[in-house]
Structures are given as C-alpha cells and as structure tokens.
Specification:
Blueprint lengths: L18 E5 L15 H12 L3 E4 L11 H15 L5 E5 L5 H14 L3 E5 L9 H12 L7 E5 L1 H4 L5 H5 L2 H4 L3 E6 L4 H9 L7 E4 L12 H7 L3 E4 L2 H16 L3 H21 L3 H12 L15 H13 L18
Parallel strand pairs: 1-2, 1-8, 2-3, 3-4, 4-5, 5-6, 6-7, 7-8
Helix pairs in contact: 2-3, 3-4, 10-11, 11-13, 12-13
Length: 336
C-alpha cells in the first residue's frame, strides 16, 4: 500500500487498477452540502463489510460534475486521508468541460497522493474525432505525468461516440502514462476488440456500465469472459461481497456457480431498473444497507421516493442479500 502525502514529492511507482472498484457516492446533507464527516465511516464500511478496497471518486455516481472545483478537491482529499493504510487504490475522476479545470484537478490529485486519475470526454463542445479527443486527454495527463491515466468511456452520457477500440490504437505513444480504460458502455463488441487488439500492452480493462444504462453487475460475467481485468460500479458499495463471490467462482473456473451468482445479482438489478434506478436510488439503497446517511442528490436530480426504498428493501431481503440484522442502527430513512 502506498503512503500518501499532501505534496508532490517522489513516490513509488503506482500500481495498475484492477479487481472490484466501488464508484463512490458523495454524501450530502438535507440542504445539499457535502457531508465530509461520514467519509471515514464509509471507508470502513467498504473495507470491513463489503471487502472492497479500491475506489473511483467524483465520477457519475459521485455527482462529480455537479460539484464545484473546490468541492471536488475537498472530496478527493478526504478520501485520500481517510483511506490511508486502508484502501489499496484511490482513483480520482478529474474530467471537466474546461481543459484548465481538468488540469487543475489532475495536478491536485497528484499532489495529495492519489493512485491514478480518470477523464471523460468533454461533452458540451465535443471532440469530433479520435485525434482531437486524444489531444485533450494528453493535455490533462501531462498535468500529472507520474499518475496512471485512465480514459472514462461513457458515450451514453457524453454523446461522444468515438469507439474505444479506435481510441486505444497508438494512445500510449501520445500519452505515456495511459494505463487503461473504464468502459461504461453496453457495446461488448467494442469492449472485446479493445481487449483483443491490446493483449501485449497490459492495459487495465475496467468494465463499468453506468447505472443510467444498466448496473455494472448486470453484464460483468460476460465482460470477465472477454478479458476484463476489473470492474467499477455503484452497486459494489452495497453488493460488493456478493459480487466478490462471483469473481472468486470465476477465478477458480467454477463457471456454474459464477453464473448462479450473476443471475442472483441480476434479479435485484432487473427489479430496481424497472422501478427507475440511478444516482438518487443508489444513495437511498446505500443509506438503507449501510446505515451511513448519504443524503439526497444535488439538483437537478430528485430524492428517491419512499416507495422505491421500501420495494428495494423487500427485494433485497427476498434474495437473502439483506436480513433485518443487516439494517444498521434500524435505519429506514433513506428517502422522504
């Protein structure tokens, strides 16, 4: 594990991100302010209760693009501080519409001792081809050249339809710190070609279908078969232990058990997707399961309904994902 210092001093070479990665939620008060005080408990819950030691901070699940630059910096600092000697990998999403803001966030991540940075494509004034997108990414990566750099491919939200397979061709020649891809798309053909055409490069291929499309758990086993080296997802905040059982079965080549675990997880995901599932609902479920108050989302997102939380709780119990004793501190106030 790496020691972290709030300075830009020389550090040991960073490891490549792999395995199960929780896309972290940003806890908020009822008034929409960030609740920094519970992040320490959050770290302990992930490690001790879910067995998850890697996190992806300030991404979609963390409402990163709904936060100010100063808020994003403070959230990143708190995760690095609270995760010291507990978490293995802390990767900070530093994507923004402004190149200068992305560079500022990247430099800040390096200064506080993060283990890597990730960047989405700018999505208002969009890059129109691979070369333009790589030029943008290269400038961000150059602000933190010692940190592993990951491209966050999420075309359903950015509207940038440049295929990941095309982007990866020759990217390390332009961006030496490039280490891999967070692939948040349902196009498994594109994902498979990314793996197939880059086998010699030892990239990290992190499967992470955003919850606004489907939860990552929904297709993870298929991605593992195709060569995924890890997975990033919001559901690993509260289904990390269950997902690890699937990963362990896959690793020991017990594919029947792995498939059974995948189907069991899918039953819950399928249920909540039909109810309407996104960041707001993820916050409600995490509050319910962990007992840590995640609060409401920031506008324009709306708080999850009481009906959603009651239905999700009942489904979790019916699948033996949640018993009465799992409800921390008798918490049922995940929604209004």
């Amino acid at each position: 594990m790496f020691s972290r210092h709030f300075s830009n001093s020389m550090a040991s070479p960073k490891k490549k991100l792999q395995g199960l990665v929780a896309a972290t939620i940003t806890p908020m008060t009822e008034h929409g302010e960030i609740n920094f005080s519970v992040i320490g408990r959050y770290v302990d819950y992930l490690v001790e209760e879910q067995g998850v030691k890697n996190v992806f901070v300030n991404g979609t699940t963390g409402e990163g693009l709904s936060l100010s630059i100063s808020e994003r910096c403070r959230v990143a600092e708190e995760w690095v501080t609270q995760g010291r000697n507990k978490l293995d990998q802390i990767v900070i999403h530093v994507g923004a519409l402004s190149l200068k803001e992305s560079q500022e966030l990247a430099q800040h991540a390096a200064e506080i001792g993060a283990d890597g940075i990730a960047v989405i494509a700018p999505f208002f004034l969009k890059p129109w081809n691979k070369d333009v997108l790589i030029s943008f990414l290269k400038e961000v990566a150059a602000a933190a050249p010692a940190l592993p750099f990951y491209y966050y491919h999420i075309p359903a939200l950015t509207g940038v339809k440049i295929r990941a397979e095309e982007l990866l061709d020759g990217i390390q020649d332009k961006i030496p710190s490039f280490q891999g891809l967070k692939f948040s798309d349902t196009d498994l053909l594109d994902f498979g070609q990314c793996v197939d055409q880059n086998r010699q490069r030892q990239f990290a291929f992190l499967f992470g279908v955003d919850e606004k499309i489907f939860a990552s758990d929904q297709q993870l086993l298929s991605a593992l078969v195709m060569g995924a080296t890890g997975a990033v997802g919001s559901t690993y905040n509260y289904l990390g232990k269950k997902t690890k059982q699937m990963l362990e079965a896959f690793e020991r080549k017990d594919f029947s058990s792995a498939l059974n675990h995948q189907f069991c997880i899918q039953r819950f995901i399928n249920f909540v997707v039909k109810l309407g599932f996104g960041v707001s609902q993820t916050k409600a479920i995490m509050t319910l399961v962990s007992g840590i108050p995640m609060g409401p989302p920031r506008l324009p997102l709306q708080k999850a309904s009481r009906e959603f939380t009651d239905n999700a709780e009942a489904k979790l119990k019916s699948l033996d994902f949640l018993s009465c004793t799992d409800l921390k501190d008798g918490n049922t106030d995940a929604c209004s």
